[in-house]
Amino acid sequence: MAYTDIQMDKKDLQTLKDIAVKAYPYEACGVLTGGEIENRIYDIVDANNTAALDLRKKSFEISALDIYRLENDGYKPIGFYHSHPDYPAVLSEEDKKHMIPDMIYIVASVKRTYVSQLKGYVRTSTDLNQICELSIQIVDKGGK
Ligand SMILES: [Zn+2]
User: Fold this and answer.
1) How many angstroms is it from 143 CA to the middle of ligand 1?
2) Sheet with 104-110, edge to edge strand ranges
3) Where are the domains of the chain?
4) What's the pLDDT tens digit per position in 118-129?
């Protein structure tokens, strides 16, 4: 399987950045939803970080019920995003452990008022070390 770049439009990019800044100093998290085109993000859906408050600066958890609700509403989850407050947009060992193969992951490094770095990743097999970086292309808003 070939791994295509992540595509998203400016509006969704801005949504993602706004969510990351708003959640600071805690980690923001949410679901990336798509459609027909592989790795093309159509919507960014904010999710509650359900990790315990004292862990929320360094980790996140998304409730399976939130994902169920999304699917029930007709969304197609194709990946997840989360932020790293005051930390680079690299995957932690904990992040890697929970990645679902073939889903896309976006990590945003956030300083107090802005996102300084955004990176995309995919896990290509169940092997913990089989993870590669995907570039993120900003595209015009197209049809679904
Ligand atoms: Zn992380």
Assistant:
1) 31
2) 41-47, 29-34, 76-85, 104-110, 115-123, 131-134
3) 6-139
4) 999 999 998 888
